[in-house]
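PROTEIN DATA CARD
Card holder: Alkaline phosphatase family protein
Chain length: 370
Origin: Lentzea tibetensis
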Amino acid sequence: MDGPTLADVVPSLLAGLGVPGTTNTLGLPASDKVCLLLVDGLGWELLRQHADDAPFLSSLDSAPINAGFPATTATSIAALGTGLRSGEHGMVGYTFAVSPDVLLNALGWNHHGTDLDLRGLFVPEEVQPRRTVFERAEEAGVAVRVVTAYDQAGSGLTRAALRGGRFDGVFALGDLVRRALSALQPDRAFCYAYHADLDKLGHIYGPGSEAWRMQLVFVDRLARTIAERMPPDALLVVTADHGMVTVGADDRIDFDAEPALQEGVRLLGGEARVRHVYTDVPLDVLDTWQGVLGDRAELVLREDAITRGWFGPTVADYAHDRIGDVVVAMRGNHAVVRSVAERRLSRFSGHHGSFSSAEQLVPVLSFSQH
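Structure generated from the sequence above:
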């Protein structure tokens, strides 16, 4: 994947804060007080299509960047938190194999499909061992704050991708604004703030649905309120972790109802738009899946995906086997769902993860008063 990605965002901002070893590859404005607001699910194309619902955000000039692969929350947050692509930070999907028989759900840090907490068995700081950019900023004397949902304190994903600085848990939008503004008071400050609800409504009702658009209005007000009330020398940057596509009933291929797809598969990871297929017979599985899916998907063996740079220019040794023996990237609006094992997820209208511009392109919007 050519061009800048989410992995370039925080290093570019920290370069403006004078953090050693960082480079402003995105050419973002420099400031000693930075708030980075991540709006989950705010794809570039969706924002442009619904600009009237977000007049403040749409007024900010920006060119889009790619989320990275796969275009999914855990992977993208790890890219923001480490400044690395997925092949290096190792969070290669929503779910991925951490042993031959364990599928880690990276959002809940549980054995996928169960409530089994895996933080003790698969320690987050070991699953993602690279030093975060937040740790580097803190070492350089920057006051770092992570402002996100209160129940994410000490979560596996927080420990893996966002460690460094102080965690400030929030309960609602007003709390997010209050804590973000408070985080910008020190002389050199970096605040990472996260809002989840736009993505949630996109999954349930579909991106661009009435409920989604109404939430976008609140997101726009959220960003504008921070911009209006932050210190005059501060910088607000708004980005997203991925976009989203609508998957219709006829666009779904059900793994749990298709015996041919199950043959030879040990574990099925990823999510509906990008699947990691773990198998001891990858060539056979590749041929079978290609026969079932046809041109609805691009299917490659693990080594081909690595050679093509799907997970970035480098894949760390610890990340190698987390990538599926066969990697399946869906085309169009198609998805491979699991009606039994992933019943709730399979009913979602909105999905993301693959290579379409609707999923990959995300905004990097900046605002300052000077």
